[in-house]
Amino acid sequence: MLMxxxxxxxxxxxxxxxxxxxxxxxxxxxxxxxxxxxWTSPATIDFDNSHRQVANISELRFNKDTETIKLRQGxxxxxFNETVSVPLNYMGQVFxxxxxxxxxxxxxxxxxxxxxxxxxxxxxxxxxxxxxRSSQRCQxxxxxxxxxxxxxxxxxxxxxx
Length: 161
Description:
This protein has helices spanning about 5-10, 20-25, 100, and strands at about 15, 25, 30-40, 55-60, 70, 75-85, 90-95, 105-110, 110, 115-125, 130, 135-145. The chain is mainly beta.
């Protein structure tokens, strides 16, 4: 079952909204862009983690006058202003808004796992474009006891009926 944005906020799943009027949606909550980071080195991940090395990242700066950021084609780590606190029997997922999708933006790895209580992140891949800090949002949705389907976030409760 998908939850409404109002229900998600009322239950404290998504907090620290910049503007509830603009961010609450019928089937989720729009997340607002806080910062964008780029990878500056490769990571190393191996089977037993004996050679594991985290990739270095650097924050990209917004233009002070226009509050925009120019993104070249590629993948970026995106941090949102809102914090997420997902209950044990819920699962959340970040979807790109249709306006961003039509502009070449896609999100990957924008999931909110159980017991997660922190600022939300996702990996975003964009075609070359310019982004305005105050207007870019992604859709966060939360499901409770949902069955597997094509249209959105999927989760099954581990609680017994």
